[in-house]
């Protein structure tokens, strides 16, 4: 039987972990001097946390990135007190920090339903304002998904993630606790000669079927969202989880890891990623590495060994494929340099993107 598998090469850079928005409270309604009537207050703009949301969805649903609450009702003979304008709610994922454009923190959204007021509506016209209403507040705000680390280790059990974290960070990794999460990942700090530091999180618990919440599936996958980049780790010789489960080669492990991320949230596979091929000290490792590299170049030809439903739709474009041995230290310094290079590259791309986003919003809303 011919097994068809269509794999696209996935370009990184689609994952959205921050967003700038323009927000404006509604203006107040007019007062009515003749009979001393008050205009209604304008509505407020709130940012509200909800589990089902992602920043990418916010971006796609509101391409204008503009949120304005309703104006307050004017005072009239029939309705002396004008109606209050409706509030506007911006739904965002849990684990977001809201700041102003000049980096003042407005609030943290750590749990479902948490809310932060970002633009207050104006006052309705009344005696004290000569019955003239005031405008609502307007500003640019920034939403940032809180990160647990710069890099996240993604690999099946026994690939050598903990050993790698220890080899990279030259110390016993810390167990970190974050308010917006239940799983406690291990965080190691990579320290460079110029004292620059990069954090790497070991995210335990990924197994085949994690997207269906097997094992600690979802808890693990949620963390993948919270790192800037991904470090896939595979055993060059492949692995077998248990005697009743099939043996998987390193190439198959890469595909299965990709599939698990894709099934959980497709945008995760667009994060920048590096591939670490571990246990290069084992016999036959060089030969197996060559095989893996060849397979990664032509994934369509080699994915037929996986069941159709475990074949990813897209194939990750790894920035680097780095052979190492966490045990002997082979290749670890090189990997450390690649990690830094990749994060610095992304940081300069992000700076340029923010600049453009900001200019665009300011141009649209300059008064
Ligand atoms: N030969 C060899 N063995 C290694 C290497 N790295 C790790 N191991 C061994 O592989 C096994 C698993 O290593 P871990 O670092 O615990 O792997 P892990 O991916 O953190 O595993 P989980 O904690 O189950 O997710 C251990 O017995 C390690 O000693 C390596 O570079 N070479």
UniProtKB/TrEMBL annotation:
SUPFAM superfamilies, sorted: Obg GTP-binding protein N-terminal domain (SSF82051), P-loop containing nucleoside triphosphate hydrolases (SSF52540)
The entry's keywords: GTP-binding, Nucleotide-binding, Nucleus, Ribosome biogenesis
Pfam short name (any one): MMR_HSR1
Top-rank lineage group of the source organism: Eukaryota
Record domain OBG-type G: where: 149-344
Listed InterPro entries: G_OBG (IPR031167), GTP-bd (IPR006073), GTP-bd_Obg/CgtA (IPR014100), GTP1_OBG_dom (IPR006169), GTP1_OBG_dom_sf (IPR036726), OBG_GTPase (IPR045086), P-loop_NTPase (IPR027417)
Example of a GO biological process term: ribosome biogenesis
One of the record's GO cellular component terms: nucleolus
Residues annotated as domain Obg: 13-148
Subcellular location: Nucleus, Nucleolus
Gene3D superfamilies reported for this sequence: GTP1/OBG domain, P-loop containing nucleotide triphosphate hydrolases
MF term (GO), any: GTP binding
PANTHER family (UniProt xref): DEVELOPMENTALLY REGULATED GTP-BINDING PROTEIN-RELATED, GTP-BINDING PROTEIN 10
Family to which the UniProt record says this protein belongs: Belongs to the TRAFAC class OBG-HflX-like GTPase superfamily. OBG GTPase family.
Protein's name according to its UniProt entry: GTP-binding protein 10
Organism of derivation: Hippocampus comes
């Amino acid at each position: 039987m011919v097994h068809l598998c269509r794999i696209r090469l996935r370009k990184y850079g689609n994952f959205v972990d921050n967003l700038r928005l323009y927000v404006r409270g509604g203006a107040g309604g007019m007062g009515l001097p003749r009979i001393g009537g008050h205009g209604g207050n304008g509505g407020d703009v709130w940012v509200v946390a909800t589990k089902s949301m992602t920043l990418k969805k916010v971006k796609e649903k509101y391409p204008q990135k503009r949120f304005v609450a309703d104006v307050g009702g004017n005072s009239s003979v029939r309705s002396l007190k004008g109606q209050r304008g409706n509030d506007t709610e911006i739904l965002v994922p849990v684990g977001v920090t809201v700041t102003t454009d000049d980096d003042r923190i407005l609030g943290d959204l750590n749990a479902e339903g948490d809310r932060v007021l970002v633009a207050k509506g104006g006052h309705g016209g009344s005696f004290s304002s000569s019955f003239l209403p005031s405008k609502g507040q307007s500003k640019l705000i920034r939403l940032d998904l809180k990160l647990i680390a710069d890099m996240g280790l993604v690999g099946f059990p026994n690939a050598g993630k903990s050993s790698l974290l220890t080899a990279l960070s030259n110390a016993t990794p810390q167990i970190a606790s974050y308010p917006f999460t239940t799983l406690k990942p291990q965080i190691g700090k990579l320290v460079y000669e110029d004292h620059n530091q990069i954090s790497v999180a070991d995210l335990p618990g990924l197994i085949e079927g994690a997207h269906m919440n097997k094992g600690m599936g979802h808890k693990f996958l949620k963390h993948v969202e919270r790192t800037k980049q991904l470090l896939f780790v595979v055993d060059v010789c492949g692995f077998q989880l248990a005697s009743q489960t099939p043996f998987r080669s390193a190439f198959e492990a890469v595909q299965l890891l990709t599939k698990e991320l894709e099934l959980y949230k497709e945008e995760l596979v667009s994060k920048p990623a590096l591939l670490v091929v571990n246990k290069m000290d084992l016999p036959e490792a060089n030969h197996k590495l060559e095989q893996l590299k060849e397979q990664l170049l032509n994934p369509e030809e080699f994915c037929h060994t996986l069941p159709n439903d475990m074949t990813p739709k897209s194939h990750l474009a790894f920035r680097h494929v780095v052979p190492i041995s966490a045990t002997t230290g082979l290749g670890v310094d090189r990997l450390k340099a690649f990690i830094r290079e990749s994060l610095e590259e992304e940081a300069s791309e992000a700076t340029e993107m923010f600049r453009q986003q900001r200019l665009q919003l300011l141009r649209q809303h300059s008064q």
